[in-house]
Structure formats: structure tokens, C-alpha cells
Amino acid sequence: MVRNQTDLSDARWRRSSYSNSSGGDCLEVADGHPGLVPVRDSKRPHGPVLIVNAAAWAPFVEAVKAS
Question: How many of the other CB atoms lie within 10 Å of CB of 56?
């Protein structure tokens, strides 16, 4: 098992502009981690965080925009 060693204790999370205003379907990302994109569910701020390689994140965002 690979364990993440990225320190997110001081992360500043921002909500996706694609999240709805009623509090559902909320995705948050944290900036300031070169080469990485930490992602979490805003409804579970103390829950798990997915760390995505920035090179993989960009095509994902483009695909979401296109849908």
C-alpha cells in the first residue's frame, strides 16, 4: 500500500465553480501543491482526500467542461 506524505494541514480549499449552490455535489481542490491536485468532497471535510497528478487533472477538467 502506498501512503500519501503530502501535508495538507494548512491547505486552502476552494469549491468547484461547477458545484451547485444548494450544497450538494461539491468538489473542493487545494492549490499550492506543485504537480499535485488534492481533491475532496466538501460535505466530508475530514474525510479522505484524493491526490491527483496535475498532468492527469487538466484533461479531466476539460472533459467535465465539455459534458
Answer: 9
